[in-house]
Amino acid sequence: MSDVTLINIKEEILAEDKELAQKLRARLRGQGVFLVNLMSSPGSGKTSLILKTLSHLEAAHRMAVIEGDVDSAVDAERVAREGFQAIQIKTGGACHLSAAMVEKGLGALPLESLDLLFLENIGNLICPAGSDTGANLNVAISSIPEGDDKPLKYPLIFQTSDVFLVNKTDVADHFDFDMAAFKRRVGRLNPSAPVFEVSCKTGDGIEAWCRWLQERVATER
Known about the structure:
Elements lengths: L8 H22 L3 E7 L5 H12 L5 E7 L4 H8 L3 E6 L8 H9 L8 E5 L16 E7 L6 H4 L1 H6 L2 E5 L11 H11 L5 E3 L8 H15 L1
Parallel strand pairs: 1-4, 1-5, 2-3, 2-4, 5-6, 6-7
Helix pairs in contact: 2-8
């Protein structure tokens, strides 16, 4: 029998982050701010989807964006050029945004002047799915060029997200993406979550997505 003491750092960090995420949710709820966490693989169109959503809802909501990236401010600069407030979090190599990182981002925003806040997570389908950011809503974005098999390969993100968007439907004719198969696979993992088909290029489906989002925000208040 070994006398070695085992200290499980991962479990301790996850527990601490979960507790902080719960505190952030309570804080934001108290300030009337609804936080939306968007996750996807690189190139699926998170930033484009955020910009389309901001443009569609700007008359009804006071909004801002927290951008997460390993080592650039490209996305935040793009959002700012469109006239919306954006904060950039550089993770320095971390593969997802943590509640602690989000807390720092919140500290740089005038939360008293906001009611809807978007969080663009790091682009991958694994790490962000296992980290609670304190968001009220978790959104997973897939895109037509990625293929319809992602629910089979990365089940956790499809089990834990609240809503799914399939982006780039404007190029569907050029790829072998089986939408019915995708929806069946999502339905087996998460039967209550809706799936929206959208194109940030043409605007198709954006209104339906934004209407659903506004209804969800209203039910949380």
